[in-house]
UniProtKB/TrEMBL annotation:
<dbReference type="GO" id="GO:0009102">
    <property type="term" value="P:biotin biosynthetic process"/>
</dbReference>
<dbReference type="InterPro" id="IPR004839">
    <property type="entry name" value="Aminotransferase_I/II_large"/>
</dbReference>
<keyword id="KW-0547">Nucleotide-binding</keyword>
<keyword id="KW-0012">Acyltransferase</keyword>
<dbReference type="InterPro" id="IPR050087">
    <property type="entry name" value="AON_synthase_class-II"/>
</dbReference>
<comment type="pathway">
    <text>Metabolic intermediate metabolism; pimeloyl-CoA biosynthesis; pimeloyl-CoA from pimelate: step 1/1.</text>
</comment>
<dbReference type="InterPro" id="IPR005499">
    <property type="entry name" value="BioW"/>
</dbReference>
<dbReference type="GO" id="GO:0042410">
    <property type="term" value="F:6-carboxyhexanoate-CoA ligase activity"/>
</dbReference>
<comment type="similarity">
    <text>Belongs to the class-II pyridoxal-phosphate-dependent aminotransferase family. BioF subfamily.</text>
</comment>
<dbReference type="GO" id="GO:0005524">
    <property type="term" value="F:ATP binding"/>
</dbReference>
<keyword id="KW-0663">Pyridoxal phosphate</keyword>
<keyword id="KW-0460">Magnesium</keyword>
<feature type="domain" description="Aminotransferase class I/classII large">
    <location>
        <begin position="298"/>
        <end position="635"/>
    </location>
</feature>
<keyword id="KW-0067">ATP-binding</keyword>
<protein>
    <recommendedName>
        <fullName>6-carboxyhexanoate--CoA ligase</fullName>
        <ecNumber>6.2.1.14</ecNumber>
    </recommendedName>
</protein>
<dbReference type="InterPro" id="IPR015421">
    <property type="entry name" value="PyrdxlP-dep_Trfase_major"/>
</dbReference>
<dbReference type="InterPro" id="IPR004723">
    <property type="entry name" value="AONS_Archaea/Proteobacteria"/>
</dbReference>
Length: 644
């Protein structure tokens, strides 16, 4: 190849979706012979790594270009229109169309929807509103173009949306019969688009679609005769063009990158607020109990997991003071280095005794306990069967494990059996909440264990919301069902009825030894403070001694459900969690705010904690709530639901 020769390099990358080739990325360059290998490698790298996914196929075409056939054009002038929202960006398109002499901008814009699935652009007769592309599925491909570059210029594999768009817009604007162009990128991370024509130049509009949307398309606006129509198609697809003096994107220092990198975050926050999914924290100024102080005002707290109201029990406070005097506060290291004390060992022994297992291990939180345990028990090639309404910590543990995840219908043992038969595995685990945190219903433990035993699968149950709540003495799921068999992996927390902090797993000694040596959430975490361990230990002792708290909580559940029934709110629960389903997210917030105004703190639970359209009040009762408080709360909820 002669150093002065020019070569066209074209790259197209695609992937398979449902048996169909889907376009991912495309680009082209016109370069001198010595630069062919550099630009070809850059385009290959670009095609293989794209935000729209990994390519299954990549085509690269290189051919010589006859210099005499190249047209050199000066780049269009550039103007930027800053808009706050994509909706305002769409209004700017309409203004542009009117400037271009189009009297029916809305009719033209309706064709944008048809461009999203096209590989090329639409060629639209703006007067007759007729599509002119010979191949409607493929569209018109404006190709054979690049910008002029100085000798020695190189380019990386990243896409320069700005410069490449100006090159294309300049060629299109100089095409016979084309009076303008509308372009919205299909890149989900790029929301800036443009409109252009020879008269107005290249007009960037900073937001033309929602962030994250893959909807993008291009319309070439045509006005002319049938003969000019074919000339336009030939020019767009075959004429080689090099654009001179393409302007570099110049930003003020304050605008550089910062606006772009935060745009996705800003849009997400706006979307959360628009859809009534934005969350803000209320600051409690008093101890966690059935009554709390917020902004100096007293509220009946009916949203807390402190079900037995022992978080500030005198015995726990005394344990904290005594352990602080003896051990100080910090633990100083992970359990496997310097962070293990006699009080850590005592708590684990106490948990094992309380849950009637051989041993136990403490984790820093219930979330970590689930994530670390599941990811230690199953790996890639194994299978985990998970209830569809399991807690997020279980879901995340399943994902982190890289095992095959099979979700079965909520608390449906027939579906679980079916899914196990359809997904045979050598090593597997079946995991479920004992009491489901959003609905308050209870796992069918006996049948659950039957299925695990029949199929030689590990059983794992999360008792976060069952300990201290169900069973005659509050011992949890096994006591509730009077089940003698043990669960292989019994997980729980100290942060609910026990009124403390942290999580644990109880089971056979070999299980606990394995987790101590393999569970990354245990190995690589500084251990909880000895003070926290002492508080947890005292909390379990209170739970064992003061069974009347469990009895009172169970009475409150029945009483409150009866009171709600008087207002046509038919809920059934045997646990401290009583969901009042509202559905609409905005309505759920309205009811929650109404209760707050009347002295009751009850959270509105919305997506993604629960499914969209399944927003609810999650009432969480305590043993210390009085009948008068529960009766009044039911009345307020009834009134609020009538008003919404």
């Amino acid at each position: 190849m002669s150093a002065e020769e020019l070569y066209s390099i074209k790259m197209r990358a695609s992937k398979k979706e449902n048996g169909t080739d889907v376009h991912i990325s495309g680009a082209e360059k016109i370069v001198e012979a010595p630069d062919v290998d550099i630009f070809a490698n850059a385009l290959i790298e670009r095609g293989m790594h794209h935000s729209k996914g990994e390519a299954d196929a990549l085509n690269l075409k290189i051919h010589k270009v006859c210099k005499e056939n190249i047209i050199y054009l000066d780049a269009l002038s550039v103007e930027t229109i800053e808009v706050e929202t994509w909706e305002k960006g769409q209004e700017e398109i309409k203004k542009y169309l009117k400037e271009t002499g189009i009297d029916n901008p809305q009719d033209v814009m309706q064709f944008l929807d048809e461009t999203y699935a096209m590989r090329g652009a639409m060629l639209l007769d703006v007067d007759r509103l007729i599509r002119l592309e010979p191949d409607k599925k493929r569209g018109i491909r404006a190709t054979n173009m690049d910008q002029e570059r100085m000798k020695g210029d190189r380019i990386g594999n990243e896409k320069n949306h700005y410069e490449e768009a100006i090159v294309l817009a300049t060629k299109v604007a100089n095409c016979p019969g084309i009076i303008g162009e509308i372009c919205i990128s299909d890149d989900p991370e790029y929301v800036t688009g443009y409109v252009s024509s020879k008269e107005i130049g290249y007009r960037r509009i900073t937001k033309m679609k929602r962030m994250g949307s893959e909807k993008g398309g291009r319309i070439f606006l045509f006005r002319g005769t049938d003969a000019e129509e074919q000339k336009a198609i030939d020019f767009l697809q075959n004429q080689h063009v090099i654009v001179r003096n393409v302007p570099k994107k110049i930003c003020k220092k304050s605008d550089m990158k910062r606006a772009q990198k935060w745009d996705k975050i800003d849009k997400a926050l706006v979307s959360l607020k628009e859809n009534h999914l934005f969350r803000a924290m209320k600051t409690i100024e008093s101890a966690q109990s059935s009554h709390v102080t917020i902004d100096g005002k007293d509220y009946v707290l009916m949203a807390s997991n402190n079900y037995l109201d022992i978080a500030s029990h005198p015995s726990i406070k005394s344990a904290v003071v005594e352990s602080t005097a003896m051990y100080g506060f910090g633990s100083g290291g992970s359990r496997l280095t310097t962070g293990n004390t006699v009080i850590h060992n005592a708590l684990e022994n106490k948990i094992a005794s309380y849950k009637e297992t051989e041993a136990a291990i403490v984790f820093n939180t219930g979330y970590v306990a689930n994530v670390a345990t599941i990811s230690a028990m199953v790996k890639k090639g194994d299978t985990v069967f998970s209830d569809e309404l399991n807690h997020a910590s279980i879901i995340d543990g399943c994902r982190l494990s890289k095992a095959k995840i099979v979700t079965y219908a909520h608390n449906d043992m027939d579906d679980l059996r079916k899914k196990i038969q359809e997904n045979p595995c050598e090593t597997g685990i079946v995991v479920s909440d004992a009491v489901f945190s959003m609905d308050g219903d209870i796992l069918k433990l006996p049948e659950f264990l039957d299925i695990c035993e029949e199929n030689q699968l590990f059983s794992m149950v999360d008792e976060a919301h069952s300990t201290g709540v169900i069973g005659k003495t509050g011992h949890g799921i096994r006591e509730y069902w009077q089940e003698k068999r043990q669960v292989d992996i019994l997980m729980g927390t100290f942060s609910k009825s026990i009124g403390g902090e942290g999580g644990y797993v109880a089971g056979e000694t070999r299980l606990i030894n394995y987790l101590r040596n393999v569970a990354r959430g245990f190995i690589f975490s500084t251990s909880l403070s000895p003070v926290t361990m002492a508080a947890n230990l005292a909390g379990i002792e209170v739970l064992e001694k003061e069974i009347s708290r469990v009895t009172k909580l169970q009475y409150n559940v029945k009483y409150f459900c009866t009171q709600l029934g008087k207002y046509g709110i038919n809920v059934k629960s045997e646990t401290a969690i009583i969901p009042v389903i509202i559905g609409d997210e905005e309505n759920a917030l309205t009811v929650s705010n109404y209760l707050h105004e009347n002295g009751y703190f009850i959270s509105a639970i919305r997506y993604p904690t629960v499914a969209k359209g399944a927003a609810r009040l999650r009432v969480a009762l305590m043993s210390s709530h009085t009948e008068a408080e529960l009766k009044k709360c039911a009345e307020l909820i009834g009134k609020a639901l009538l008003m919404k």
